[in-house]
Queue: 2 jobs
Job 1
Amino acid sequence: MKKKNKLGSSISSIEGTWKFDNNVAKVFDKHVNQSIPHYHEIQNYIASLSEWFMKDNTTIHDLGCSTGETIKKIINLNVTNNYKIIGYDTSRKMLDLAKKKLSNKKKNIQFKCVDVLKIKKFGKSNLFISILLFPFLNYNERKKIFKKIYNSLETGGAFICVEKIRSNSSDFEDIFNQIYFDFKLKKNLTEKEILKKAKSLRSSMNLYTEKKTLQLVKESKFKNCEVFFKCFNFLGYIAIK
Ligand SMILES: C[S@@+](CC[C@H](N)C(=O)[O-])C[C@H]1O[C@@H](n2cnc3c(N)ncnc32)[C@H](O)[C@@H]1O
């Protein structure tokens, strides 16, 4: 019989619409590694890519920063330039955990408990990052945010983003989703937990094909865009102004 996983059961006990609430925040770092393939590596890749855009005196914006794990990896690069990082999230608990995690880092880090959709304008920047926030935004919301990111970026600045996408065909969507469930089972989540999470996400996610996702980057006038990560229905890309 499959071993009951305490972490997973706490997450999947949340019924209805998925929320990044206090229960989720407390177990987020472990849960996300059980739920997303190559999560640590994705964060490491983003930190590595960031190094090229951490200009002196720039501000880095992390949209949907959760517990600040990616910010920690960026700081651990030990880039000596002066820079500031602002992490945005709607979950106060996630940000409290991020602050605690990063309290001994002597860097200029700020956290803002805010809905990114409500931000009128970001300050000038050479780098935006966002891991898996966009699946929770619809197409129009994405469009508006992309425009604000583009307007805030200096020429040559980058937007590094990781998304969950839909496959181009129903055949692949079915295969990839089943492989995704296999992945979660291998990470010790139970069938019941996996199904509950899938149910809770039904009304929360807005997923588009790779083509439509990247089309928006193009329409937002970014000069160059390159995919740096793809694993089944997860996609990472970097766009440069
Ligand atoms: C999958 S997690 C992101 C993980 C994180 N980027 C990392 O590197 O580990 C999505 C996060 O986005 C936040 N979020 C969702 N919608 C948001 C919004 N409209 N504005 C700000 N944060 C939002 C959630 O609270 C959650 O912490």
Job 2
Amino acid sequence: MTVRGRFITLEGIDGAGKSSHVSYIADRVREKGRHVVETREPGGTKAGEAVRAIVLHEAMDVRTEAFLMFGARTEHVVRVIEPALAAGDWIVCDRFTDSTFAYQCGGHSLPRAMFEALERAFEPAPKPDATFLFDLAPELAFERQRGQQRTPDRFEREQIDFFRRVREAYLERARNDPKRVHVVDASGPLDQVRANLERLLVPVLA
Ligand SMILES: Nc1ncnc2c1ncn2[C@@H]1O[C@H](COP(=O)(O)OP(=O)(O)O)[C@@H](O)[C@H]1O
Ligand SMILES: [Mg+2]
């Protein structure tokens, strides 16, 4: 029987450094001789990427945004994540369910019970085996992003206070599930953050 793969997610506010470390984690898993699927949310499927383009750039009610995200996740889980895990692959995913609780619930104050009910009502999304939460102050994250050439998307233009709430919601999730959520201090230079990540990654790869 094929041994089920493992599911690793990266979380953190915009500009925290998630995308900068996805390939590193995937490479470290490959070194272990595992097949890796690198993916992201919202996205990961054709429908999911279409949703991504809409939610990142069109203004909409936060509930609309929440349900679109949820729909995109369902596609992602059913078409990509579950089949890959069942086939024994490892998944490295840039954002997952914790983002919903951090942004839609923490940031936008939507009731958590709504998403918990949705999760129960549908086929439950798999719980990540390990989540790396890249943590830093929103002010610093903004500074880093200002160095980027690309046009800021709708989320990135939102206010510092919003990201403070998102950060707090993330940290609360980490406190409530410390075995799964590993908090990576992302405030230092890239090589230092990577060293912090590596320390936390070693036991996950064992
Ligand atoms: N530790 C770091 N120090 C300085 N700049 C960083 C660091 N980590 C990432 N960056 C830069 O900050 C920006 C945001 O990083 P990114 O990985 O895209 O964040 P996220 O995917 O979490 O939004 C990028 O321009 C990236 O090169
Ligand atoms: Mg990113």
